[in-house]
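Model it.
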Amino acid sequence: MTFIIPSDYNLQLQREIRAFLDSSEDQRLKQAEESAIAQMISYLNVRYDTDQIFFDVPLYDALQNYTAGDFCYFKQENQEVTAYRVYTCISSVTGEEPDTSEKFTLKDPRHSLIKMYCIDIALYHAYSAFAVADVPTHRKDRYDEAIEWLMGIADGTLQALLPEKENDDEVATLIRFGSHPKECHRY
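Modeled.
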């Protein structure tokens, strides 16, 4: 699944680090992305429809017929810079490039907060694959913040504007059980 596209990392990584992570033979960054998505799904699937949150963002294909509502990412190459942008189709089209066609609009259907936290978790996993002790402190802090947010979503203390699961009769409502910590009154 391609939920994270290469340009999503531009805000958080310098070009040299990105090239280093991309050049690894065993595709550590791709594996880290998949692990991050699976980790996020494990927190979000209690209340939210994760199939609508995490979906494949395909690379543009000139031979494919796009209908209204379809989306893709398009690779634009200039002399020194390669940019990836996500486009949404407005009306049916085949063979027209999104950056020059009026039948596409520059609109990303992915939730920006989910995308940001997914990148934070993926980068933490990518760095920790080399050596856990060498993970930069800001990466660890961002990872901890992402996990704290996911835990808040999972236990219901935080709300997110995400597609919720449809109510089925088979789905049980969440009931929270607990008690006060055990106290010792012996002196």
